[in-house]
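Posting for a labmate who doesn't have an account.
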Amino acid sequence: MSLRQMEYFLTVVDEASFTRAAETLHVTQSALSHQIKALERSVGGPLLERMPRGVRLTAMGRAFRPHAELTVRSAAQARRAARAAAGVEGGELHIAAVHSVAVGILPDVFARWRTAHPGVLLHLHEYATTEALEGEVERGTADLAVGPAPHDWSGTVVTVGEEEIVLVVPFDDRFAGRTTVALPELADRPWVRCAMEPVIEGERFLDWACGRAGFRPYTAVFTEHTSTAVRMAAAGVGVCTAPSHIVGGAVGEDCVVLTPDPPWRRDLTVFSRVPPTGAAEAFVDLLRTTWPGPAATAPPTSPTPPADVCGSAPAAVLG
């Protein structure tokens, strides 16, 4: 069994056709078929069922596929890591991020990177939830992930900054002239929330936080993305929570931003399966200098949402 055979197998699966797969791989169809048959002999049975119009996975093929994908991705990541270790003058770097970080933080970071390292191609992979981000990085889709601190991560985690979670209301809101607001003051207000929030102590984040403040939030709208939630809040649909960098930088300052009292903050981290080297290490250093200092330098705050507060999909804090 070889890496090339697994790559051929996955291409046939993706194309659902030996003919199209051969064209994509720039090999003859007979050579492709030979490699697939050799792979099937090595695993002890058929992986693909040849149909009159295409192919489909057998039970063995379905079991084999995720392992083949991981192997191929890991090999690609290993090649990138080896090249990156030689320096930052060439190659490529795959960065994974939750939506709010990709929209609110990374554009400026990527612009600075392109100026300093124009020879390194950046690939951005966006995910809806922090959980999905962790899973994809674990599977080797990206070299680095940027987002909230992962849970029970066995690899490298580096804190590079801090995010502040704020409340968004329209310009004509009764609190528009203030800069802070205590959560109990919002007990009578409708809320714009993300379709998926992090769960804390068995409850969605906002239910958990408001419950501790003595009320249950009334949900007016569920959204998928933080930027949509902010627009809804600016239009007067309801209050929403979002990272401060999304409101001012990515979405536009057409609303009023209030800081919860006490404030909500969370660490922004970079995590990876192995310690960053070369280009990856340079990217981590750039994030450190571009983004505000880590939460460790700030006074303790409470509550501290471990995940997102309204963001791309996981929840709220955005992802």
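Reply:
Got it, the structure tokens are right above this. The radius of gyration is 23 Å.
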